[in-house]
Design a protein that fits this description.
The complex is a heterodimer. By secondary structure, chain A is an alpha+beta fold. Chain A is built from 11 helices and 19 strands. Classes of the chains: A alpha+beta, B mainly alpha.
Chain lengths: 438, 271
């Protein structure tokens, strides 16, 4: 701290600055803040013009091999999670903490004891007037309505309003620090993945995105009890809702309808409605037995082995059909079953009658699942920054001085910010006080 | 219905533009008054058309390019009228009104029919996030032209060249003061715009910050204005440097608002 206070050329020989002092001064300077912010802003542009998280093939189809090497070297394919970007943010955080602390200690020191200035000083102030009366009671009753006493003495009073605005800057800075810390907590302890659930299906793990997707257990299970989608007359989706049951230890804890903008919260994990789609299911009658198969399912019974190979929603104008693969005397063969063509709905394989009864397309729901323990810290930061912005930009600090003088009372006012508005306020006050007197 | 009221307001804006341009030539107070009153009428009718559309559509009409440009223009007209109560900035009307009119004509080339709202936009955050963002952007739109005017006037003074209308320009001090006022209104507004957007993203997309191009550019914009604010308050930048930063800031807003949608894309693809 001593380094920031030393001012060279102030009479006494300034203490010699060591390298560490110089580094410290630089790190805590506003110029360094501005340098860092500019650097963060300019380098953020890369991530918006270079496609993020794309595959090598995709990059090579857009850029030359040399450009791609540069992109890879600086990690511009994931610019906002690259080590250099992280370092910039950390440096900014350190700088912000040191600057705010330094400023606050200086602020505390300069918060002097409030005194009532003498007559001369008052008449030199931004705004002042005096009234010829010995009785200040009436005047004070007007002033008391909008201002708070901060100092009283025999000769007069000091009143003020909007003193909170002095702390606005610190609130804003502290809330930015809180937001950054919250986002780091999320980066370190959080994860993000997705889950695809068919109607009626239950799953206890999510799939994490990345170069090699892996599964992550949740600690509880989600069951998709129902899924509904509604459309506008024009065909755009209007609303999609999944009824999700949270199951833990074999018991259903609760169920909730989740939709876009309305997620589910449980044990620090949030589940979002992200997407939906359709999966077909095929209803067969195999030798008198009803069997439901999905794509890539296999059915085995005695010598019969069949597998659902492919689904087409339109097979040469004949409607939906499914390609079945089977073994005929050891030879692999395939055959189409078409839902809407009577002749192609049935086939005898290995002497067993197989009939396609129906093809149904069921919805599945795509859920985004994530854990972010830092999110409440970030929300707190947001709340504080809103309050800080209000206090800093829409509240201003002003003081009113009232002093007994030989020929009446002198009233003066001063505002640190927003002088125009204060001038108006003071004029109104003057009119009220003088009007009252006459 | 709302679209016809919109056209009526556009007619008033055009009328106002005409008189402001005439004012530049003849420099009569009366001419400026006509311009001012028709601007006021245009703004009021525009506001009514926006309210009508809100009732008709059942949602805050800031969900596509047409609606956004229209609301942006409304916010600009409103803030200009507000500033005019405090400062003599008639000459600024000669720049802002033509741009405003062009913006509205451009807006009317985009499809204006009321579309059903996609599920992701169905949220209480829609009005809060968009109104704060657009009012902030409108304030910085005005300061962009104030800054350009500042640079023009300053250049004229430096070269000791008498500009054709130099007598009608506000003083450099006034322009700088307006810029500071814009700064101290605009900055909180865009900050609230970004924060409410972030909270909304947290509910809709699952993460309060996704480094989506629109988010990133709004952060870049915020940083530009934050730098400007600190330069002014702690280093003591005034005048020309502030004006340059204001211009850079507004270019960044333009990229955030339009550039990202027209050229980059991303999650935030409605407007």
């Amino acid at each position: 701290m001593s380094a920031t206070k030393s001012k060279p050329g102030e009479g006494e020989p300034a203490p010699k600055k060591t390298i560490i002092d110089r580094i410290y001064i630089f790190l805590t300077s506003i110029r360094f803040t501005i340098f860092l912010l500019s650097f963060i802003a300019v380098s953020s542009i890369f991530g918006t013009i270079i496609k993020q998280h794309a595959s090598t093939e995709e990059y090579l189809s857009i850029y030359s091999e040399n450009t791609y090497r540069i992109i890879k070297f600086f990690r511009l394919d994931d610019a906002y999670h690259s080590p250099w970007f992280f370092a910039l943010i950390i440096l900014f955080l350190i700088n912000l903490i040191l600057c705010t602390m330094g400023r606050f200690t200086r602020f505390i020191k300069t918060e002097k004891v409030i005194k009532l200035p003498d007559e001369n000083a008052l008449s030199n102030m931004q705004m002042n007037f005096h009234i010829e009366t010995k009785d200040s009671k009436e005047t004070m009753s007007i002033l008391e309505k909008g201002y708070k006493y901060v100092h009283k003495e025999a000769q007069g009073f000091v009143l003020e309003r909007g003193a909170l605005s002095k702390y606005g800057v610190y609130m804003i800075h502290v809330s930015i620090i809180i937001i950054l810390i919250g986002s780091f907590i999320g980066l370190i302890y959080g994860y993000k993945g997705f889950m695809i659930l068919n109607k009626g299906e239950t799953k206890g793990q999510i799939i994490m995105r990345g170069e090699n997707p892996k599964e992550q257990p949740l600690g509880f299970a989600l069951r998709c009890k129902d899924f509904k989608v509604s459309f506008y007359p024009g065909g755009e989706p209007k609303d999609y809702v999944s009824t999700i049951e949270v199951i833990e230890g074999g018991k259903t804890i609760f169920e909730k309808n989740i939709r876009v903008n309305d997620p589910l919260f449980y044990k620090g994990i949030r589940v979002y409605q992200a997407s939906y789609g359709r999966t077909p299911s095929f209803h067969f009658n195999i030798g008198g037995e009803s069997v439901t198969l999905k794509e890539r399912d296999t059915y085995k019974k005695d010598d019969l082995i069949i597998m659902v190979a492919r689904f087409e929603s339109m097979v040469h104008d004949f409607g939906p059909g499914v390609l079945i693969a089977y073994l005929d005397k050891g030879e692999p063969r395939t055959s189409w079953f078409l839902k809407d063509v009577e002749r192609l709905k049935e086939k005898k394989i290995q002497g067993i009658h197989i009939r396609l009864e129906d093809i149904r397309e069921d919805f599945y729901t795509g859920l985004e699942v994530l854990r972010d323990p830092g999110v409440w810290v970030v929300w707190t930061g947001f709340a504080l920054i809103l309050f800080g912005l209000y206090v800093n930009f829409f509240v201003y600090h002003r003081r009113i001085f009232v002093r007994q003088v030989s020929h009446g009372i002198m009233i003066a006012g001063i505002a640190m910010k927003n002088k125009e508005a204060f001038k108006e306020e003071f004029e109104t006050l003057k009119r009220k006080i003088c009007g009252n007197k006459s | 219905m709302s679209i016809y009221i919109f056209y009526i307001s556009l007619a008033f804006y055009l009328f106002s533009t005409l008189f402001y341009l005439l004012y530049l030539v003849v420099y009569r107070k009366g001419v400026e008054r006509v311009g001012y009153y028709s601007l006021f009428a245009g703004f009021s009718i525009h506001l009514i058309s926006t309210l009508f559309r809100y009732i008709q559509a059942g949602y805050t009409p800031i969900t596509n390019i047409y609606e956004s440009l229209s609301f942006f223009a409304l916010a600009i007209a409103g803030f200009f009228l507000y500033l005019k109560r405090f400062y003599k900035i008639e000459i600024l009307g000669c720049i802002i009104l033509p741009v405003l009119s062009i913006m509205l004509i451009w807006a009317s080339t985009f499809p204006a029919e009321i579309r059903p709202l996609p599920p992701v936009l169905k949220s209480y955050w829609l009005p809060i996030h968009t109104i704060f963002s657009f009012v902030g952007n409108a304030i910085f739109f005005i300061s962009f032209f104030v800054s350009i005017l500042y640079l023009v006037v300053e250049r004229g003074i430096k070269k000791k060249r008498v500009l054709p209308f130099s007598g009608r320009f506000p003083s450099l001090e006034t322009l700088d003061l307006i810029n500071y006022r814009c700064m101290s209104y605009g900055f909180p507004f865009i900050t609230v715009g970004i924060i409410t957007g972030s909270i909304w993203a947290g509910f809709a997309w699952g993460s309060y910050w996704n480094w989506d191009p629109k988010e990133t550019w709004s952060l870049i914009t915020w940083i530009v204005y934050a730098i400007l604010l600190h330069n002014r308050l702690t280093i003591g930048w005034r005048g020309r440097k502030t004006a340059y930063m204001m211009i850079i800031g507004f270019l960044s807003i333009l990229i955030t608002f339009l550039g990202v949608n027209l050229f980059i894309g991303g999650l935030h693809s409605y407007v």
